[in-house]
Amino acid sequence: MARLGFGIFCSRAVYQKMERKREVNATDKSVSYPEDGINALSRWIQSRNLGTIKGFPSNDVVYRDPYYSLRDTSTLFDHACSIASNVRRLWFEGFHNAETVTVIFNIVRHCTALQSVTLPWTALRHGDADDWSSLLGDVRQGRSLETLELLAVDVKSFEMAESLKNMNKKPLDLSKVNFGGLKRLKLSGSSNLMPIKDEDLSAMSRTATNLHELHITGTTAISTDGLFAIMRASKNTLQVVEHSPLSDDGFRHPESLNQSNGDHLCDNILECRQLSSLAISLPSICECLFSDLSVKWTGDVQIRAGNVCSDCNCQTQATEASYIGQRILTQARCLMNARAQEDVELNIEIFIDRWIFEPQHWLVHGDVALGETLSDGLWPASKAPSCKGPYGQTGRYGKDERPYSSISEEDFLEGVRRGYISLKSNL
Fold this sequence. Notes:
This protein has 427 residues and is of the alpha/beta class. The protein has helices at residues 12-26, 37-46, 68-79, 81-84, 98-110, 123-126, 129-136, 157-163, 198-205, 224-233, 265-270, 317-341, 369-374, 409-417, and strands at 5-9, 89-93, 116-120, 137-138, 143-144, 147-151, 184-188, 213-217, 240-244, 277-285, 299-308, 346-352, 355-358, 363-366, 384-385, 405-408. A 14-stranded mixed β-sheet has the order 1-2-3-6-7-8-9-10-11-12-13-14-16-15. Helix 5 runs parallel beside helix 7 (129-136) and helix 12 (317-341) runs antiparallel to helix 14. It is elongated and about 80 Å long. The two termini are 44 Å apart.
């Protein structure tokens, strides 16, 4: 059963006003509010005297509109605009068909002080340009939405067939939809029905130039192309970037040095001069990512990559991987030391292929069983049980892997040079 959720956040005074409005409307026949069946059931359960129940149980089917709370709120806001104008945050979950999306946009249209909203991802398909223009507001008029979160889920086959009957209105294709006032954009989950893709983020990037936070998590249909379209558009304002695809799809993209537009992704990240919090998944990385010692990174920074950027000057792949890996770790330590001199704590954790690196402690975590076999037990020189992983290449728990061990960085690089283990996923 799909989870249905709906929330409104406003002041206590507004709630009290809302209750008084409902009491007044109870005597007004022009406004109809169905009896609250949930409260009636609660009173019945709490009753200890079964004799108070009149009549006998029957097998009659009783229908209750599954979207009752949504429609009831829409009716309330239609007749009480003063209440709607004080709502600052709205949250919707599970209402992803075309009919409920229409009701949702009718609700948010009345909320002129809305600051944050969580919507089903299908709002990008079933809402038209007027709906989105009204939701996002206009910075020039002093009213604009600050936080937008889109939640995606897989739907059942019968829901998919029903949704596909409705036309995709493609609101992002029209210039009147402006994301210029948005400060936070969050995209969570993936779906088998009209998922959010790179094309959607590319369309948003035309106007989303003032984002402070960008969160893209649990997705499968968004690649680094969509991610960096938004990052480039808001490079002067971005402070937080969280990108965790949590699926193999997040790494099935061209190497960072060979993007279609010729840009190097490591350099693109450094162009975000206001960036302070970073957790990102990339196809590959190199030491360039940590080369700028003037960055504002703080706290825990996580970099996940499928492999390392190639270096044509190395003779063999094993030597290349060891050489580049050493440069990456050394440069990461230089950056942490530079931030420490400014009294800023920075802890960089790097995931490359199936290995977890802690440059600060000169440690590497991973499965060393194959290397032990190939070296006839001569490598590594020492190891200890690891409390990290196994994550696997994609960062997911629960994969069919052996427990991780912790070894020194020196042992790890020696194992790569000797061919006992591999740093690059394509070796």
